[in-house]
Amino acid sequence: MGTLTGKTALVTGASRGIGQGIALRLAADGARVAVHYNANEDAAKQTVATIEAAGAEAFAIQAELGIPGDARTLWAAFDARAEGVDIIVNNAAVPGPYGHLGAIDPDEFDKVFAVNAKAPFFVTQEGLTRLRDGGRVINISTGLTRTAAMSELIAYAMSKGAIDVFTVNLAKDLGTRGITVNTIAPGVVDTDVNATWLRGNDQALAATAALSPLNRVADPAEIADIAAFLASDDSRWVTGQWIDATGGALII
User: Fold this and answer.
1) pLDDT tens per residue, range 6-47
2) Catalytic residue positions, numbered
3) Rg (Cα) of the chain, in Å, rounded?
4) Whole-prediction pTM value?
5) CATH code: domain of residue 95
6) What is the side-by-side strand order in the sheet with 131-140?
């Protein structure tokens, strides 16, 4: 019996990358996992198939985030397959526009905030009536909110800063129900979204690895392991926290 046997988890943006890693790990620990995806149905189905092949349970649900009614659409799809949730992982995000302040237009700015900040807020709000007492909310942020400024990623970092504030306030609000709320803040992770500049580029890989005292780049499973701890009963006395998952890149 796993540490999460009998629990149901929702992981947004779980068809690939960090979200997929978290979905696989929570399922391995016994949870039944709702694998949310935006557009990549094949990847979501493959994630579900991988979980089921390992003897666990999962189902895919589709909802585009960052548009009106996104939270209601997501939970309607969830409700058709499950009754109640124990773990909500707000992972889905877009990288946002890459550029300095003067290069970002209002539509790009609105998009990154709609997906990265507004959607988690309302997905969680809509989910509160389904989230059982003693449950878990796990938000995925970034080390960029507490490290040296990277002005080319200003909009993305700002959107994730909103998640950090959301976490501490929600932890205070939900504590009376025994629900913990925490943030995981990764650094660079070897995922598909970083593949174009990281994989196959020895110079970029070496420079990125050097940011960490461990001198390597994380893979999704290492972020997922932290999520598994926060989802488990072992983390019952941890709430409102920002967990540095940068491999020590923030050490001065």
Assistant:
1) 999 999 999 999 999 999 999 999 999 999 999 999 999 999
2) 156
3) 17
4) 0.94
5) 3.40.50.720
6) 58-62, 32-37, 8-11, 85-90, 131-140, 180-186, 242-245
